[in-house]
Write the structure tokens for this entry.
Amino acid sequence: MALGERDEFSGQMTTGHEWNGIKELNSPVPKPVYLALIAFGGFAILWTVLMPSWPGLNGYFRGLLGADQHVAVRESLTQAQAARAAWADRIGATDFASIQADESLMQVVRDTGATLFADNCAGCHGAKATGGPGFPNLANAPAMWGDEPETIAETIRVGINGQSPETRYAQMLAFGRDKMLSGAEIGTVVTYVESLSKPEVASSAEPELLAAGAEIFANNCAGCHGLEATGMVESGAPNLADEFWIYGGDRASIRDSVYHGRAGTMPSWEGRLSPTDIKLLTLYVLELRQAQQ
Ligand code: HEC
Ligand code: HEC
């Protein structure tokens, strides 16, 4: 290795390294970079002294400032609980009508209810509670089980075909799969069911076909759906004569409902949500319904 020498163009020393005639200059680190390195290094050392940093055998060095995220989290949790307790107690102790008349409590319903709904219900009933195939529209369709506050709260508490021993029960029989009706009979009764909500079917179908369908309906379906097909809460059977459908009102979906049967599951929420949360959700759903009417 040759010793360093002065470069005749820049006037700086070379390092003495040489590659195929090219020599490396020994330029000093630029001042601003040098100062920045010292500043950052100094800050890093200062920070490890001020803040929690070095691990040790029994815990860690806590830092001179005593900063602790655990304490901060605990404090904000306590604050949030205190804030929640203030309205949770009032909502728990107040009846539905009085809460609905109290704008400050309804503001809590809107804020907290929206979060509760998004976390627990939107996965099935949709973000706007308008339902989807297999899941009823809660915002703007007639509620099969009833839309009194107490009834909705009860539906949420016990669920439908849920795990609670008190759950509501809704079982549509599989008339095709279990061979209670032939394929032709199912086709006929489906046309009849369609005719109840679709004027174009009612006017175009053969009158004899509709009469035969009405008879099949009276013998096999009316016991649960009612003679007028407007549904019966006692059997959990929905109205088939309006434009609202859980599983779809096109011919293929109606046929599927009759052929394979249906038993949608709405979970029982008692034990998973507190009575106050169920109350909040009930009021939240009711307000959505009022807003849509
Ligand atoms: C796992 C899916 C699922 C979840 C989650 C769910 N539901 Fe349901 N819910 C259903 C189904 C399915 C039905 C209809 C049951 C049937 O077909 O008879 C229903 C029915 C209802 C009804 C009765 C509607 C009527 O017509 O009377 C209400 C009210 C309701 N749900 C509210 C809620 C609320 C509030 C939540 C959140 C706490 C929730 N649901 C979460 C599936 C769900
Ligand atoms: C044992 C009582 C029972 C009988 C009998 C019954 N149903 Fe149902 N039906 C139900 C219930 C309960 C539901 C709702 C199931 C659910 O929501 O999961 C239902 C749902 C339906 C649906 C789907 C409605 C929708 O909103 O998507 C159709 C269509 C239907 N039934 C037609 C019939 C026809 C046609 C017959 C006669 C051939 C019949 N049902 C007989 C109880 C019954």
User: Anything to note?
Assistant: The longest strand covers residues 14-19. The chain has twelve helices and four strands.
